[in-house]
Design goal:
alpha/beta, 20% strand, 2 domains, 5 helices
Length: 193
């Protein structure tokens, strides 16, 4: 076989392997048990839909309970490396807002033990102690309905910034640097009111 034909054959085989990996070995869609009921619109200016969740301490919260505060609604998981990298900075950010902000971190993990083990490792590294969170609420989205059905989240992390009036102002898909000096002034901006 001539060298150009051999090279073409190798390229075709590698292409087929890449296609097979993408179809079967790459990221997979998360199955949803039922059709979405009124999924949230997450464009600027839409009100956050009403939903309830239970934190790791067993306390039930309603998103309306946080009206009057800026809310960072973060969809994350302990197995998501970008989520893990950005979470400590998000916690520090809301702690620095004098009680005017809350972080609601809804995990897509399979169970609470995974989250508790994650925070035990974080505490051992001196990063975050889940028992002393002042302005952050950590919760498990048990059936993934809030994450996947209500907010149609496909990629973690995803954060929705909700103004004090309950209006969604920004949707951030992917990891960002929450310690960036431009973020705090944006969250304190009267335009979020």
């Amino acid at each position: 076989m001539k060298p150009p034909a051999l090279i073409a054959l190798i390229v075709i085989i590698l292409g087929l392997i890449a296609m097979a990996y993408d179809m079967y070995g790459g990221p997979q869609m998360v199955p949803i048990q039922s059709k979405p009921q009124n999924p949230a619109k997450t464009t600027n200016g839409d009100p956050v839909p009403n939903f309830s969740f239970t934190d790791l301490n067993g306390k039930t919260h309603d998103i309306a309970d946080f009206k009057g505060k800026v809310v960072l609604l973060n969809f994350w998981a302990t197995y998501c490396a970008p989520c893990v990298r950005e979470l400590p900075a998000m916690i520090e950010l809301v702690n620095g807002m004098d009680g005017n902000a809350k972080l609601i971190a809804l995990s897509s993990d399979d169970n609470e033990d995974q989250i508790r083990q994650f925070f035990a490792r974080m505490k051992a590294k001196g990063l975050t102690d889940i028992t002393t969170l002042q302005h952050a609420i950590i919760a498990l989205d048990r059936d993934k309905r809030i994450t996947h059905e209500l907010f149609l989240t496909q990629r973690l992390p995803e954060t929705i910034i909700i103004g004090p009036n309950g209006i969604m102002t920004r949707k951030i898909v992917g990891e960002i640097d929450w310690s960036n000096t431009e973020i705090l002034p944006f969250l304190r901006n009267p335009g979020l009111q």
